[in-house]
Design a protein that fits this description.
Strand content: 15-25%
Order of helices and strands: EHHHEEE
Radius of gyration: 19 Å
Largest sheet: 2 strands, antiparallel
Oligomer: single chain
Strand order of the largest sheet: 1-2
Number of strands: 4
Helix content: 25-40%
């Protein structure tokens, strides 16, 4: 069972603290990548502002970061079971999805298994 643990939010919000916070967001199976990609897009936007590492961010970027962190805390109770195959599987399928936009792209593969009594 995977459970997300969040760290403390920085008091002073600079390019360095945002990058440090975002770099600690790691989900081994990538199940939360659609959420984490928003953080990576945020740091990309901050990078384009061409401000120093320890300079406080503009107000709009601080508000965006604080809103993102608040939304992240809604995930603190999220639990994802990792069972892949059922015992005595009679059918196994590999299912793939992909999507893209001007800002990002993503692809996922899922395993679906069935036995005489249930499907996962």
């Amino acid at each position: 069972m995977y459970q997300m643990n969040l760290q403390e939010v920085p008091v002073t919000i600079t390019k360095r603290t945002v990058l440090s916070f975002i770099s600690k967001l790691y989900v081994p199976l990538g199940l939360l990548q659609p959420i984490i990609i928003k953080a990576k897009m945020m740091i990309q936007k901050i990078w384009l502002l061409k401000i120093d590492w320890d300079q406080i961010l503009p107000r709009q970027e601080i508000e965006n970061f604080q809103r993102y962190v608040a939304e992240l805390y809604q995930l603190k109770d999220l639990k994802i079971p990792r069972c892949i195959l059922l015992k005595d599987s009679v059918a196994v399928q590999l299912i793939g999805f992909a999507d893209a936009s001007a800002q990002a792209y993503g692809a996922y593969l899922y395993v679906k298994s069935e036995n005489a009594n249930e499907t996962r």
